[in-house]
Every structure is written in C-alpha cells, then in structure tokens.
Write a structure and sequence with these properties.
CATH architecture of the largest domain: Roll
CATH superfamily of the largest domain: Beta-grasp domain
CATH topology of the largest domain: Ubiquitin-like (UB roll)
Number of strands: 5
Structural class: alpha+beta
Oligomer: single chain
Number of domains: 2
Number of helices: 5
Strand content: 15-25%
Helix content: 25-40%
Length: 156
Amino acid sequence: MKKLAFTLNGKHTTVSIEPDEPLLYVLRDRLGLDGPKFGCGLGQCGACTVMLNGTAIRSCSYPAQAASGTAVTTVEGLGSEEHPHPVQQAFIAEQAAQCGYCTSGMIVSSTALLRKNPNPSNAQIKTALSGNLCRCACQLRVVRAVRRVAQEGRRV
C-alpha cells in the first residue's frame, strides 16, 4: 500500500491505495463516495466522470496514484440537497434524468464544460458530453439544462 495525498471536493485528503488501483475504486470503496458510478470499466460510458484540476476525466481508467497533488471534484463536491449547484438546479428544472445512473457524470462533464466555455453552442455541448452515455434518452434534456445555465449567465 502507498499513500495518496490530494484535494478532494475542496478538502485535503490522504488515503492508502494499491499501486495499480483506479481512482474510481479509491473514491467509492475507500472514501465512501457514491456519485461516480462504475459503468463499463473502460472509460467509455462516462458514469465515473470526475473533474481533475477542472478537466473532466474517467475515473475508472485513471490510475489513482496519478492523482497525487491534484484537485479532484466529484458531484458531491458541487452542491448539496439544500444548496444545489447551478448545473444540478438546471438538471432538475429540465427533468434531465430518468434512471439517474449517468446523471452525476453528465453533471460533472457539463460543469467542466461551462467553466471553460460559459456560453457553449449546442454542438459544443454535444461534443463535450459525447463520452457520457445515457440509455434512457435524456440527452436532449441534458443539452437544454446546460443551455439554461449558459443563458442565465450563472457562474459554475
């Protein structure tokens, strides 16, 4: 076991990890976060998406040891039930979830996009979310939610 020190959702965190352990397993199994989900295990579905230094990454295929010294943000670090993040509020307003399995990854990817580009086109939104799969066909609602945040000019 080795130690991993990083900032998780704004708090300095140190945890013991296996050398080849994916970041997703550390977040879920060692730190008890259930926002990032295990979907495909290959970094192709987006259910495990988190932000690493502000960039959306697939945590199931990202080596935990590579997160040393970085800032990791999961959906839990964006907002709370009492004080939802603007993107979370927009997802609720647009009913951009059905089963919910992909939702945390979609919210994190949307937030990363809006931080880099506060007024993306629909094409840019679709490109940014192309790695987040939704089997329930909520993609149009997700695009509307991201457009809502952009049109309201809310800081994310």
